[in-house]
Amino acid sequence: MFKHFLSAGAAMLTFCCALPVAAQEILKLNHTDAPAGSRDRAAQLFSRKVAEYTMNRYRVLVFHSGQLGNDVKSLEQLQQGTLDFTVGATGVYASMNKSLNLAALPFLVDGYEQGWQFYDTSTWLKAQFDLLPAKGVRILDTWEAGFRSFTTKTAFNTPDSARGRKMRIYQNDMLRWVVESMGFEAVVKPVTEVYLAIQQGLVDGQENPIDTISSLRFYEVAPFVTLTRHIYSPIPLSISEKTWQRFSPADQKAIKRAAHDATLLSRTEVRNNEERLLIEMQQKGAKVTRPDIAPFRKAVATVYDKARGVYGEDVDLILSDADKVRKIVK
């Protein structure tokens, strides 16, 4: 009998060990930053936290430098369900909800803490983000990129010196209005093509947050860095709605938690590293200037009226939320 018990136990053990183990599901995240940038570090942390919070049932593969496509292509892939995550400037999402162009209104907030409060509490912005799942994309949280400034091949310190020069922008109506109000001719190009475009003289410069300027080394071909900080440009992390709906409620909670952990890293790094990056760029030949902002504010004043003509009361709703933030966060 004892011998029979051992045989049965062995058979049971063999059966148990032969049970299939849940396969790890691979998810893909694509972004356009270089491996040295804070965006990529936040993405790598997000990947690790997704694995941790789902007990390794999901693994996020991170593709940097636009390996799977530029920002616009990434959003299209999210809508199709062929890509799971991407992260890019809020204005990029305006291709699905035109009103999100207003997130690129010039001088909307004055500092990082105001920007974080605005993105975390604005009722107008939440309402706009809530429209995206119906288009196939869901915002998980908002990572940081910083305030946009210019890099040019020759000195640029006032709007008067912008006339007749070509400035690269990404596809966004508000951004176009801003640079054109300063006197530039706007030229749309994917960020992955900008370095070569400046080098070949197709454009005279570009505008991006300092973290992006540093990680993509735009200062090498456009060494004049002018700190206008004309647009606050955080980068929402989004997920394909098709992917999101496959998750259980517990997994959705885990993904959101991982996204928020990455947000905290992203915000802290970008804010704390900005001055260090400027010093490093100067040591490598960049010429950094902090111009009088008053002429730039005056130049872009027409943008608000132009926006009201297209977006109506939404302009005053977003400005109202920004004003509330200014009263709370100085």
Give a written overview of the molecule.
With 330 residues, the protein is an alpha/beta fold. It has a single domain (23-328), classed as Bacterial extracellular solute-binding protein, family 7 (D-Maltodextrin-Binding Protein, domain 2). The chain is built from 13 helices and 11 strands. The protein has helices at 2-17, 38-53, 71-80, 112-121, 123-129, 173-181, 194-199, 210-215, 241-246, 249-283, 294-299, 301-311, 314-328; strands at residues 25-30, 58-63, 85-87, 137-143, 147-152, 166-169, 185-188, 205-209, 224-232, 235-240, 287-289. The strands form 2 sheets. It has a 6-stranded mixed beta sheet, sandwiched between helices. Strands 2-1-3-10-4 form a 5-stranded mixed beta sheet. Helix 2 packs antiparallel against helix 10, helix 4 (112-121) packs across helix 13 (314-328) and helix 6 runs antiparallel to helix 12 (301-311). It is globular, with a radius of gyration of 23 Å.
